[in-house]
Design goal:
Blueprint: E1 10-13, E2 19-22, E3 35-40, E4 45-49
Parallel strand pairs: 2-4
Antiparallel strand pairs: 1-2, 3-4
């Protein structure tokens, strides 16, 4: 049984392996980028790519 995600976007990890969801991201999976955390839930952070 699968669940629908609450937030759609790219799932990433911080340097300390904490999960971060980046909604509507142009980031490429497997690449490194700087992210600003703007919200948190009990299970993951929400972030946006900064340039």
């Amino acid at each position: 049984m699968s669940k629908e995600a609450k937030v759609k976007g790219l799932m990433a990890r911080t340097a300390s392996y904490k999960p971060v969801v980046i909604p509507e991201s142009s980031a490429v999976p497997g690449s490194f980028c700087d992210v600003e955390i703007f919200d948190a839930t009990p299970g993951y952070f929400l972030g946006r790519v900064i340039s």
